[in-house]
C-alpha cells in the first residue's frame, strides 16, 4: 500500500508522508527538550505538581507523576495563555497497556486551547521518552477529548511520526492573482 503524498503548508512543502499498511508516516526534525526552570505561574496554571520541566524549540514540556494526572488535568487556560511559549506539552509514562507515554498539548496563547493530536509536540516527546525508556520506537496516546495514537521512531536527529490517516479531500488551491 506504499505511495507518496504531497502536502504544502503556509510555510512551504511539508515532508512527504509515506503511506504504509498501518497508516501514514511523516519525517520531521527532532526538537529535544532541555531542562529549564518553570516559568512563573506554570504549575499554578496547570493546577498540578510537576516532576520535570524543560523547553524544546517551540514549547515547554512538563512531566507529571502519572497518566491519571495527565488525563485528569483541568488547566487554567487564561493563566496558561500568559506562559511565553507557543504551547505547553504535558506528559507522563503510560500505565495503559500498549502505550509508552501519554500527553496533552495546550496552546491558548496561539489560539488553540487544547489540540486534539499534535505532531510537532511528538517531535519533542520522542527524544524525551526515548532517553528515559531506552527505546527508539514508542507509542504515545494524546489524551485530549478526541484523543489519538501516534507512533514515534527516533532516527538520529529526526523523528518519524506514524498514525492512521484517510484522504478527505483531493485538489489544489492556488492564490488568486491580483
> Can you count the helices?
4
Strand share of the residues?
A: 35-45%
Please name the CATH topology: Diaminopimelate Epimerase, Chain A, domain 1
Give me the secondary-structure category: alpha+beta
- Runs with pLDDT <50, length 5+? none
Average of the residue pLDDT scores: 89
Helices and strands, in order, run as EEEEEHEEHHEEEHEEE
Major sheet size, sense and barrel closure:
11 strands, mixed
Distance between the terminal alpha carbons, to the nearest Å?
A: 41 Å
CATH superfamily: Diaminopimelate Epimerase, Chain A, domain 1
How does CATH name the architecture? Roll
CATH hierarchy class name: Alpha Beta
Total beta strand runs:
13
Domain count: 1
Question: Could you give a short description of this structure?
Answer:
It contains four helices and 13 strands.
Describe this structure in words.
The protein is an alpha+beta fold. It has a single domain (26-163), classed as Diaminopimelate Epimerase, Chain A, domain 1, CATH 3.10.310.10. The protein is built from four helices and 13 strands. It has helices at residues 42-46, 67-71, 77-80, 119-133, and strands at 8-9, 12-13, 18-20, 23-29, 34-35, 52-55, 59-63, 87-93, 101-107, 112-115, 137-142, 148-155, 158-163. Strands 3, 4, 5, 6, 7, 8, 9, 10, 11, 12 and 13 form an eleven-stranded mixed beta sheet that branches. The longest helix has 15 residues, at 119-133. The model has no long low-confidence stretch (mean pLDDT 89).
